Amino acid sequence: MEKRELVCVACPLGCPITVTLDDNNNVTDVTGNTCKRGDAYARTECTSPTRMLTTTVKVEGGKKACVVPVKSSVPVPKGMMMECMEAINKSSIKAPVKIGDVVIKNILDTGADIIATNNAE
Amino acid sequence: MTYDVAIVGAGVVGGLIARELSRFKISVALLEKCNDVAMGTTKANSAIVHGGFDAQNGTLKAELNVKGTAMMPELCKKLSVPFKNNGSLVVAFSDDEMEHVKALYERGVKNGVPGLSVIDRDELRRIEPNISDKAVGALLCESAGIVCPYELTIAAVENAVTNGVEFIRNCCVKGINRVADEYVLDTSAGEICAKFIINAAGNFSDELAKMAGDDSIKIIPRKGEYYLLDKSVGNLAVHTIFQCPNEMGKGILVTPTVDGNLLIGPTAINIDKKDDTETTPEGLAEIVEKALKSVPSVSVRNAITSFAGVRSHPETDDFIIGWSEKNDRFLNVAGIESPGLSSAPAIAIRVREILGEKLELSEKESYTDTREEPVRFRHMNDEQRAELIKKNSAYGRIVCRCETITEGEIIDAIKAPAGARDVDGVKRRTRAGMGRCQGGFCGSKVVEILARELGVPMNEITKFGGESKIIYERTK
Amino acid sequence: MLDFDLAVVGGGPAGMAAALEARENGVEKIVVLERAETLGGILEQCIHTGFGLHYFGEELSGPEYAGRFMKLLEDTDITVKTDTMVLDIASDNTVTAVNKKDGLIKINAKAVVLAMGCRERPRGALSIAGSRCSGIMTAGTAQKYVNIDGYMPGHEVVILGSGDIGLIMARRMTLEGAKVKMVCELMPYSGGLTRNIVQCLDDFGIPLKLSCTVVATHGKDRLEGVTIAKVDEKLRPIPGTEEYVPCDTLMLSVGLIPENELSKNSGLELDRITNGPKVDEYRETEHKGVFACGNVLQVHDLVDYVTEESQIAGLGAAKYIKGEKISSECVSTQGVDGVRYIVPQRINCKTDSDVKLYFRVGAVFNNAKIIVECGGKEILSKKKKKLCPGEMEYVTLKQSVINELAANSVVTVRVEA
């Protein structure tokens, strides 16, 4: 059995949460949270933490922009952020780019698409 | 080719000498080790045109200060450089200091300084409303003024280049060889040959002289730290306010600048490294403490920036101007500490006279002694602005928001003779980045414009040359 | 002279929301003047997500958030002038601006909305000793280089100030391969959101050094290192705690200052704490017909609140233009006992709506109570589990309560720990 202390980031309140895990790393108890989102956050954070990934990707043939911002469509596993960065840094997108254009589909099998979050002519 | 004259050092002294020599039918090269003019002592000093009462009677400092100050208004007009004859005060805080003030008055009169008077507490309060209650009187010098030293230098070199002087930047002299009647200068920009060398190398003038076999000069670098305060408090001082001088210099002053800011400083500490322009917590604290003595309402909450300069204090305590005794075509202009800026116009004339002893100087027909006034959008009225943008739309784009500087002015600064090559160079010529945000918004825009105009990638643009890179490789 | 009903100065989230809201409420001729090349303001470089949770109920990046408003603007006939700098706002609300295309233009507007945003506090204001080398920049400048221009501003980074921009840049630089050595924070607490401390620092093992500051910068051409030191309760560096940290970049995230040069030049008096104009509940300044909203008024923590506030200003401007805006005797507001300021600074007693009082606290409070009083009488109280200086708070006063208040009385807001 293990107890982990977290600060909830689901909202600005920052509730201190204590998560109890059994020997198989299963959550057995969550305390300290003041809402459902806190409970969900604590469970995910202790078992399979994920993060939104935002960065830029190279634009080919842009009028002015050399890079365009991108984000992961859904959070990616926290431990895979750097690997995802490498994959994004190797890729590029041809101008013109529109918000929502998919740069990389299902990046590294995470289930997340990398999509443009701004336009580039 | 062999130049008739190589001037080493493009500070205010070298710059004004170059301009003076550009009147004549000789070839002149102005060598500067940095990426721009005015990068040494000229860049960071009190920006004061002194009356000339400080230096001992009979010294070169006294003579050239009084002459130089008299020349300054006319010179600035010709070069379109702002000069303000705001007058100076040496404030006494005790009866003892009042005696000192009177002694300064006597000395000033002997030196030939015009416009001197000793004023009492009431008169002082009347003409300088924010002065400390503890001040008991002052020496008023009506002939003193303020000027921007780097603007003066930039204008002088621009004028010199227009008249045919060659400005060579990033040209650090590493060795000097005399071959018959010629010098071969080994520099970071290659070999340069000249018949005469003028040593205007500022803090490094002793080292340059040594390269020519002359070890008679000893420069003691003396650091001075300053605070520059926001324009909102620029009116806290009307005059340049000195305290009574001591053996290290004229003490901490409080002065308006020609651009309307307030400048306080400098400290005075002898240092080992000539390029040590780091400000220190102690130095900055000292400035505040002493400035408060003169003007109690000064607050560094209004500070925009702090900086330090290194003055070249000569061991002999007087300017060193003349032919080297070791090398008969090598002319030293060294130890130009305060009142160097004030004296610079007169120094240029003196150097030309001395050079004339050995080199024939006949005047050109084509010489122009004025510099065209740069566009100053912020000083224009609506009609002038509308007209200007109609002629060139680049003046319709404001790059620096705090100081209202247009893209057109920045392009002008880059394209000018001996123009800007780095961000600080643009800043000194246009004031872009000089305001409250200190380039937070416009810094990257200036980098972009420099890169475009110079035809290089953005990451080759520096803050002030050398390794002062602003950004590195592409992220992608 | 161009004639408009409403001139909006600034096309960031504040300006766009104000213009759209004014249009919704029947204002016809509206012009938005933006000094950058595109609308969106600082959001364009804030490529991280976290925007819009309150307003759109989803987590957007800065450009996406801005993009939604740009699209709405495009679908109207609101005039947008980008690359256009406003130089002056005269006392009769004539706006003078310049751009490359139109040259110098004068705009005669019935009402003006100030939405110029804010700027970052630069190094000079901090009096850090040391050299004037390159490599010292605000976090926002660095953010522009990385996210818009696509260049690395440095490789070994120390960040001073744990405001959200500083934290966000710590992660951003790390993702791009830089080594972020530490984030130093002068105060004993961080000014940033907990989420950002967890996800921008903890995730990458970047130390957050509280009660610590940079006392000197070193380097001849490019920055080579900084000296950091611990500070005492009075925020003064403690001698003997100095430590040299090699780095090529110092990023400053030490506060934002509302960009009020135009406001000041037009004679508006600024609130000493917010550094923004003083406004009523519709964000009308002390000049008739001049409104202010967004970061030019008070530095917000969330863009969602900027939007909300700007809609109030846009509605206020619409009411003013239509001659429907209430202008009665006012009560003034005041933050006391831990509450640093209140926006709005005054409320019309005869106001026609509920009014949110926005404020920030001066220290961290746990399990505290916010108490609103007027004339010695409690008119509202609200329990809060946590109050931090980094987060904007608000309480809502009911219209009926305000309408009962005596003219010229003072409404105070305080924290009871």
Walk me through this protein's architecture:
The complex is a heterotrimer of chains A (about 120), B (about 475) and C (about 425). Chain A has about 120 residues and is α+β, with helices and mostly antiparallel strands. Chain A has two helices and ten strands, in the order βββαββββαβββ. Chain A has helices spanning about 35-45, 80-90; strands at about 1-5, 15-20, 25-30, 50, 55-60, 65-70, 75, 90-95, 100-105, 115. Among the domains of chain B are: about 85-145 and about 220-315, 2-Layer Sandwich (D-Amino Acid Oxidase, Chain A, domain 2), CATH 3.30.9; about 375-460, Arc Repressor Mutant, subunit A (Orthogonal Bundle), CATH 1.10.10.1100. In chain B, strands 1, 2, 9, 10, 11, 12, 19 and 20 form an eight-stranded mixed beta sheet that branches. The model of chain B has no long low-confidence stretch (mean pLDDT about 95). Chain C folds into three domains: about 1-120 and about 255-325, FAD/NAD(P)-binding domain (3-Layer(bba) Sandwich); about 120-255, FAD/NAD(P)-binding domain (3-Layer(bba) Sandwich), CATH 3.50.50.60; about 330-415. Helices cover about 20% and strands about 35% of the residues of chain C. The mean pLDDT of chain C is about 95. Classes of the chains: A alpha+beta (about 120), B alpha+beta (about 475), C alpha/beta (about 425). At the B-C interface, helix 7, strand 18, helix 9 and helix 12 of B face strand 7, strand 8, strand 10, helix 3 and strand 15 of C.
What distinguishing features does this structure have?
heterotrimer; A: 121 residues; alpha+beta; CPE0013-like fold; five-stranded mixed beta sheet; three-stranded antiparallel beta sheet; 2 helices; 10 strands; 18% helix; 36% strand; elongated; B: 476 residues; D-Amino Acid Oxidase, Chain A, domain 2; Arc Repressor Mutant, subunit A; eight-stranded mixed beta sheet; five-stranded antiparallel beta sheet; 12 helices; 22 strands; 23% strand; globular
What can be said about this structure in brief?
The complex is a heterotrimer of chains A (121), B (476) and C (417). With 121 residues, chain A is α+β, with helices and mostly antiparallel strands.
Principal-axis shape of chain B equals globular
CATH architecture of the domain at 84-145 and 220-314 in chain B: 2-Layer Sandwich
Q: What fraction of residues of chain B sit in β-strands?
A: 15-25%
What would you call the quaternary organization? heterotrimer
CATH homologous superfamily title of the domain at 84-145 and 220-314 in chain B: D-Amino Acid Oxidase, subunit A, domain 2
Corresponding CATH superfamily of the largest domain in chain C = FAD/NAD(P)-binding domain
| Number of extended strands of chain C | 28
How much is the radius of gyration of chain B in Å? 22 Å
Q: Enumerate the spans of chain B where pLDDT stays under 50 for 5 or more consecutive residues.
A: none
The proportion of strand residues of chain C reads 35-45%
How large is the count of helical segments of chain B?
A: 12
Biggest pleated-sheet summary of chain C: 7 strands, mixed
Q: Briefly note the structural class of the backbone of chain C.
A: alpha/beta
Provide the number of structural domains of chain C: 3
H/I helix tally of chain C: 8
Just name the CATH architecture of the largest domain in chain C: 3-Layer(bba) Sandwich
Question: On the 0-100 scale, what is the average pLDDT of chain B?
Answer: 95
Indicate the structural class of chain B. alpha+beta
